[in-house]
């Protein structure tokens, strides 16, 4: 068992970005060379920590999972691992420095059911060599101008970030494949412990930013595409959403097919704290994948880097049947795997002249993958309101450790919660696809999907 000792911030930076910020320059060649020495190709610290509880990165997990076929169920390659430690409301104070405010609030709110099972840390993150090569190029070429990346393509844009906004773009532009298909559910948990299915959907996703044959010169800024078609629940069967996300927020476009009107409508203001049609209005646009979308509502600051306990290598949850994965008030603790990892702590405060339902937020980005794995949200009264979460999964066939969906949030005030991208019972879990035609992600194609 490893000791969970308090660790001061490894890095304390006063870097922040304000709305209409000046350009941040790329790093110099000498600093970028660290991606081939003491840093991993994606920008994490290659070495382990002092006590060995975080091991060194040695290339990630690229060994095929026995019996896996593309599109099928994804098993847990670490099913034989046993928890090293269980953290509950009774012993949480001993480990408080490695728990987010949201996790501590959940332990206190649900002392009889919510716990953190700590497993051995496995640094499984990996990517193809061409992604590593593009990341090295981005390090010396990419810039952030008015909160928008320029001259970045096909890799982590800012592997050695100098600002909070750069780190958040690393999350949004993280490696998760070129194109994929999922069969998912959205499930709302009510404050009194009921589960309500809000969405049963077939989803197609694509990242033009990661087209292998592309280049910064050819890339037009549209980095993420989505099409979701609902087959349930009955009230929502036949609905659909198409989105094309652009680095310049004003150029992002989202359309929804409304069955009652039998027509496609463009969704106005498809960003920020606007409710998403894909979640039946339960979740905000920028809660997708813990954070998604434009950055100009907030000022962003790197608080530092810290060793924290986060959900990780979550194939265990993916392999758990839905009935056993859902507790009354949260995901079942028995289905979760937590590990100790270094994370970038990024704080967001609402920018001058802007508004947001959660005017203060804190994000925890895994250093190896850049996934925003956890988040804390405070409301306008300064009260801790929500805990956002994601569940990174090992996919050696990509290769990657990435979040295939399986994200959501807990409302720490009302007790309600939301689990999006649930694919526990799906026969098909994250099928890697050949590149889709661009016409798939158009309102015209969405019109053709309408069934009533």
UniProtKB/TrEMBL annotation:
Which CDD domains does the entry link to? Answer: LolA_like
Q: What keywords would UniProt list here?
A: Signal
Signal peptide range equals: 1-25
Q: What is this protein called?
A: Uncharacterized protein DUF1329
């Amino acid at each position: 068992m490893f000791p969970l000792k308090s660790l001061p911030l490894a890095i304390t930076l006063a870097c922040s970005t304000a709305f209409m910020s000046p350009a941040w320059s790329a790093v110099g060649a000498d600093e970028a060379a660290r991606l081939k020495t003491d840093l991993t190709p994606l920008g994490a610290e290659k070495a382990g920590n002092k006590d060995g509880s975080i091991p060194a990165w040695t290339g990630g997990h690229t060994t095929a999972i026995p019996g896996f076929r593309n599109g099928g169920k994804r098993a847990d390659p670490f099913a034989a691992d046993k928890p090293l430690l269980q953290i509950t409301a009774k012993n949480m104070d001993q480990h408080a420095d490695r728990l987010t405010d949201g996790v501590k609030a959940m332990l206190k709110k649900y002392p009889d059911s919510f716990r953190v099972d700590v497993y051995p840390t496995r640094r499984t993150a990996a990517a193809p060599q061409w992604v590593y090569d593009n990341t090295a190029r981005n390090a010396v070429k990419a810039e952030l101008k008015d909160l928008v990346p320029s001259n970045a393509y096909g890799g982590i844009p800012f592997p050695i970030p100098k600002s909070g906004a750069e780190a958040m773009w690393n999350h949004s532009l993280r490696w998760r494949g070129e194109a994929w298909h999922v069969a998912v559910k959205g499930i709302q948990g009510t404050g009194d412990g009921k589960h309500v299915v809000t969405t049963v959907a077939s989803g197609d996703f694509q990242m033009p930013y990661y087209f292998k044959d592309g280049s910064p010169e050819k890339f037009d800024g549209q980095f993420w595409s989505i099409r979701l078609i609902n087959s349930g629940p009955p009230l929502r069967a036949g609905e659909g959403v198409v989105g094309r996300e652009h680095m310049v927020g004003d150029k992002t476009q989202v359309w929804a097919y409304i069955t009652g009107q039998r027509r496609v409508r463009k969704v106005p203001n498809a960003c920020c704290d606007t409710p998403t049609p894909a979640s039946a209005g339960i979740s905000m646009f920028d809660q997708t994948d813990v954070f998604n979308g434009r950055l100009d509502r907030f000022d962003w600051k790197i608080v530092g880097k810290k060793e924290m306990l986060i959900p990780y290598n979550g194939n265990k949850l993916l392999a758990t049947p839905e009935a056993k994965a859902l507790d009354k008030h949260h995901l079942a603790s028995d289905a979760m795997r937590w590990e100790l990892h270094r994370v970038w702590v990024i704080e967001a405060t609402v920018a001058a002249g802007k508004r947001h339902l959660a005017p203060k937020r804190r994000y925890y980005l895994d250093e190896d993958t850049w996934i925003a794995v956890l988040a804390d949200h405070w409301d306008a009264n300064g009260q801790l309101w929500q805990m956002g979460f994601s569940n990174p999964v090992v996919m050696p066939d990509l290769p990657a450790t990435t979040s295939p969906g399986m994200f959501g949030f807990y409302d720490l005030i009302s007790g309600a919660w939301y689990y999006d991208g649930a694919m526990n019972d799906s026969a098909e879990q994250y099928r890697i696809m050949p590149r889709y035609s661009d016409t798939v992600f158009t309102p015209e194609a969405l019109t053709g999907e309408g069934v009533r």
